[in-house]
């Protein structure tokens, strides 16, 4: 009985999304054309922009923010994918305690991102790449 009360208190005092998701997620970002492997992309979260190479397993905190992935290369058509967030199903389990709705909202753990994103990559005709392949 004591173990049950401790477990219930932990869930009640934290949000269900916080309890199940821990606020960190991984997104696999892939190119639509395998020839674009090892090409550069830019990932923008809020105001922070970072460079990466396709494919990537991108680690992100659960945020109330969209993620933009931009593919730019001299011999490829530029493209940007906006990764949308949605409410994680575990958030709705907060109906059992009520308090978790506030907790998960404050800490942003109610949000989830898709586990895999494919960014459109299309080679431009008659273009010869110069320099390194990235």
**Class by helix and strand content?**
alpha+beta
Q: Strand percentage, roughly?
A: 35-45%
* Biggest sheet overview: 4 strands, antiparallel
The helix fraction, in percent, is: 10-25%
What global shape is seen? elongated
SSE pattern: HHEEEEEEEHEE
Count, helices: 3
Care to count the β-strands? Answer: 9
Terminal residue distance: 59 Å
Unreliable segments (pLDDT under 50, ≥5 consecutive)? 12-16
Question: Can you characterise this structure?
Answer:
The structure is a single chain. With 134 residues, the chain is α+β, with helices and mostly antiparallel strands. The protein has one domain (13-119). The protein is built from three helices and nine strands. The chain has helices spanning 2-13, 16-21, 99-107, and strands spanning 24-31, 40-45, 48-53, 56-61, 67-73, 76-83, 86-87, 111-112, 116-119. It has a four-stranded antiparallel beta sheet with strand order 3-2-5-6, with no helix packed on it. The radius of gyration is 20 Å and the shape is elongated.
Question: Nutshell version of this structure?
Answer:
The chain has about 130 residues and is of the alpha+beta class. The protein has one domain.
Task: Break the fold down into its secondary structure elements and pairings.
Layout: H1 2-13, H2 16-21, E1 24-31, E2 40-45, E3 48-53, E4 56-61, E5 67-73, E6 76-83, E7 86-87, H3 99-107, E8 111-112, E9 116-119
Parallel strand pairs: 1-9
Antiparallel strand pairs: 1-4, 2-3, 2-5, 5-6, 7-8
């Amino acid at each position: 009985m004591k173990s049950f009360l401790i477990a219930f208190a932990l869930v009640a005092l934290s949000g269900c999304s916080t309890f199940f998701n821990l606020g960190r997620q991984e997104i696999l970002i892939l190119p639509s054309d395998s020839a674009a492997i090892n090409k550069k992309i830019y990932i923008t979260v809020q105001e922070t922009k970072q460079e990466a190479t396709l494919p990537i397993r991108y680690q992100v905190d659960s945020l109330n923010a969209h993620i933009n992935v931009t593919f730019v290369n001299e011999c490829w058509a530029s493209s940007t994918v906006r990764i949308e967030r949605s409410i994680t199903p575990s958030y709705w389990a907060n109906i059992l305690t009520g308090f978790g709705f506030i907790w998960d909202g404050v800490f942003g753990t109610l949000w989830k991102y898709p586990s895999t994103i494919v960014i459109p990559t299309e080679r431009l005709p008659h273009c010869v790449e110069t320099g390194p392949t990235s």
